[in-house]
Amino acid sequence: MKISHIAAIIEEVAPLGAQEDFDNAGLIVGNPEAEVDKALLCVDITPEVVAEATEAGVGMIIAHHPIIFHPLKRLTDGTYVERAVAEAIRRGIALYAAHTNLDNVRGGLSFHLAKLFGLKDVGFLAPSAEKPGTGTGAVGELPSPAPVMEFLQMVKERLGLEVVRHSAHTTASTGGSASTLSGTVRRVAICSGSGASFIPAAKASGADIYLAGDLRYNDFLGADTGMIVADIGHYESEYCAKEIVFDIIRKKLPNFALLRSVREKNPVKYLK
């Protein structure tokens, strides 16, 4: 199977035109006309993942994060990026990324999480004015209100999280002072990956809770009355990219060999 054909299948769902201007999605290393008979799926391309692909005889790695995000000026094995790229080139392994183009479409990561959490009537959290039919994040409704802690526990279990960082629940009656998480959740906003910049959009959507990754101290401190913010982790909220790409390719190429990386690890560790 030509690499260009596999790329076209992915880009039919997640066109490169949907990616953000800062991004570098698409084929990053390799000849688009080269033939491959299997692909390895991962979130991040690392030297360990390239070694895994080599041992499995894989000719293409499909990642969520682009391995080359900023221009490379040298390949001296000085960083994990240089080592991974150089080894992939030596081994003839193509490197491809479906990043914000996969984030910004219906059926992308945030929509996948919304479905996993049982949300209904899901739409974009921040629809794009420049690219109709695309947007960032997702927002939807639970079938019925759920206690805050019950909902957060469900999120924790379904994503296999070790920890959830969240703000306190506040009410107007307490003057915005922190209280226990005794309220209920009905409307939920989500942004996979780094989502701190979309807190205003989540508030404007009327969400009771906003789930995202990479939230900062002040994001919790400044949580407005009526909306909880919860950090579910960057890697943890994007791990589903492997399943999404698997399903996209499998529908068109049911006999093409697809492997999910078992060597990639969340780079963030938690001491419990």
What this model shows, in words?
The model is unreliable at 172-180 (pLDDT under 50). The strands form four sheets. This protein has a six-stranded mixed sheet. It has 272 residues and is an alpha/beta fold. The chain has two domains: 3-102 and 240-260, NIF3 (NGG1p interacting factor 3)-like (Udp-n-acetylmuramoylalanyl-d-glutamate--2,6- Diaminopimelate Ligase, Chain: A, domain 1), CATH 3.40.1390.30; 104-237, Udp-n-acetylmuramoylalanyl-d-glutamate--2,6- Diaminopimelate Ligase, Chain: A, domain 1, CATH 3.40.1390.30. It is globular and about 55 Å long. It is 31% helix and 24% strand.
At a glance:
With 272 residues, this protein is α/β, with parallel strands linked by helices. It is built from ten helices and 15 strands. The protein starts with a helix and ends in a 12-residue tail after the last strand.
Number of domains: 2
Which architecture of the largest domain per CATH?
3-Layer(aba) Sandwich
Structural class: alpha/beta
Mean pLDDT: 93
Strand segment count: 15
